[in-house]
Amino acid sequence: MAQEQLASDRVQVTADAIEFYYEKGWTDGLPVVPATEARVREFLAHGGKHPSDVIGVVPTRGRVITAEKVAINAVMAGCKPEYMPVVLAAVEAMCEPPFNWHGCLASTGGSAVFMIVNGPITRHLGINGGVNCFGPGFRANATIGRAIRLIIINVTGGVPGVLDKSTFGHGGKYSMCIAENEDASPWEPLHVERGLKPNDSAVTVLAVHPPLQFADQISNKPEEMLASCADNMAVYGPNLGEVVIAWSPEHVRVFREAKWPKRRGAEWLAERATISLSKLQKYTSESPSVSKQVVKGPEAIVQIVAGGDAGIFSCIVPPWGGGHMSKSVTKKIQG
Predict the structure, then answer these.
(1) Rounded-to-integer distance, Cα 150 and Cα 31, Å
(2) Are the CB atoms for 204 and 330 separated by under 8 Å?
């Protein structure tokens, strides 16, 4: 059987290839790895895809995302070929209508694509969910997330200053990909909570604003720890939408020792994470003694365990779009 031809144009670069990519506007501002045909085909093979396979469509932009385009940008991002199934699954998830790809990439709100990876593939690929998981130093985290940003720019037109109209933006727009620290968790992992099997691998995508780290070195009861979290959630006001709470291993021990299930914590936060209308007087005619819930219910609270073993910090990752513009999507990773 003849090998399927790649559809992309070939360019012969005689000078500096990295500078050529800059001149063409095909980068995120950082140098990229030149995408040769051999590299692209290797990535396609690892993803089990033909070049013309359609991974997803962004109807608002009329953009069709093929496996070939995904592979090209994964190469450019510095991924290893074995990362390809994760990138493919993330693209599939982002193309689901509830995620709202176009709204996320065009908004002045400056959302990033936050990827949470679960299952055996996190260990196989070395995706970090421990110390410094939101920071630098881990190739899989950095390049898988970066591949998604390059696809947004190069395939769907999300060029900063052109279609991407972020007022400020933030560092997560380069890359924001972590593993859940399942070994440190007393609860079922996120992908199992969403109906997959423990031995499945999966990626969950969310449109988010920058993480907010909060400290609590005195709480030794779940209610006290949750109260600290609720106070920080209230910073964002009512109608927060889906919010991620990344509990550190040190903080989550409080829940383990008290045998608190994940759902109970979500219910506690949904009821008690509130903001007093006295702080919103100029926006409402309601009584200032009334308080509004920050989220609509426990289903809007996505709890994971992540971060290093040492440290009295946990993290809130607030959503883009006030809860009604984008919903998280979880996809099983194939292969």
Answers:
(1) 12
(2) yes
